[in-house]
Amino acid sequence: MSFNAEVGESRRNAGNHLSDYSFFPVSLNPKLRSNNKWITIIEAKELQIERKHFHVEFRENDRGKFLRITEEAHGRRNTIIVPSTGVEDFTAAIGEVLAGAENAPA
Fold first, then answer.
1. For the domain with range 6-103, which CATH number is right: 3.90.580.10, 3.40.50.2000, 3.10.450.700, 1.10.1610.10?
2. Mind listing the pLDDT tens digit for each residue in 26-61?
3. Dihedrals phi, psi of 58, to nearest 5 degrees
4. Is there a contact between 46 and 53 (Cβ–Cβ < 8 Å)?
């Protein structure tokens, strides 16, 4: 899934801490423009788990490739960014934590 948007500060939402940015359509090109730098979304997936919405995106900008995971719930947004050089270690750590939790005594 890809989408196109231009990131810019929203003057309509000035002072509204829940909506610091608005997204405006740009072109049919799968790139985002933020602070005059291009960001390419290579792959993206959205999912909903209970009341939380997750956006998992693998992106590229002028500094390199990275994994961006955004959680939206109750009007709040939290994002973590993992450089592509650490994605394998990051996913391995998640797997180890889950495996340990499955083997933990009840």
1. 3.10.450.700
2. 344 456 666 667 889 999 999 999 999 999 999 999
3. -105, 120
4. yes
